[in-house]
Each structure stands twice: as C-alpha cells, then as structure tokens.
Design goal:
The chain is mostly helical. The protein has 5 helices and 2 strands, in the order ββααααα. The chain has one domain: Tetracycline Repressor, domain 2. The longest helix is centred in the last third of the chain and has 30 residues. The protein is elongated and about 50 Å long.
C-alpha cells in the first residue's frame, strides 16, 4: 500500500482495490450489454452476466444487487459511450469539413 500526497489536499491511500473494482464494473457492464444485444433484456440475469464477463456471480451481485440496477447501469454506460463516440465524429466532421454522415462511416 502506498500513500500519495497531493499538495494541500489530504493524502490518498492507494492499494489497488479501486482499480480492480473499476475493472470488474467495466467487465460486468460490457458483458451485460453483450448479453442484452444477443439475448434481449428479458434474458438479463446476474448468472448470465457472470458467465459472459468471466467473473464470479458474487462479484456481479456485489456491484449490482438487483437486475434492475444492472440494467440501468449497463444502459447508462452504453449511452455514455455512444454519446462520446458521436461527439468525436461530429468534431471530426466539423474539423474536416465533411458531412456528419461521412464522418460516421
């Protein structure tokens, strides 16, 4: 475990747990999106997501206690990534002076 100092801010303890938790959440959300696309919303379960993500069922349940929590988080994450991608394409369209449809393809 290490301690980082940030000037006038209080010290932050870093031991890898947050990084592992973030990686787990990303894997779970990616797997949930994949499961929804492949099998539909009705087929979304903690067990299915744990299989697709390659993480334990307990880990999925820890991060997202209810399937509705998982569905909302996966949808929010998917839409945030979509919005980011669309913003990048729009910026490229404006910078290159090409129609947005060309920048998207």
């Amino acid at each position: 475990m290490s301690v980082l100092s940030a000037g006038s801010q209080s010290a932050i303890t870093v031991d890898g747990r947050r990084k592992r938790g973030d990686a787990s959440r990303l894997a779970i959300l990616t797997a949930a999106t994949e499961a929804i696309v492949k099998d539909g919303v009705a087929a979304l379960t903690h067990r299915r997501v744990s299989e697709v993500a390659g993480v334990s069922l307990a880990r999925v349940s820890y991060h997202y206690p209810k399937v509705d929590d998982l569905l909302v988080a996966a949808t929010t994450d998917y839409l945030a990534r979509f919005d980011s991608s669309l913003r990048e394409m729009a910026a490229r369209s404006m910078a290159e002076g090409v129609p947005i449809s060309d920048a998207c393809t």
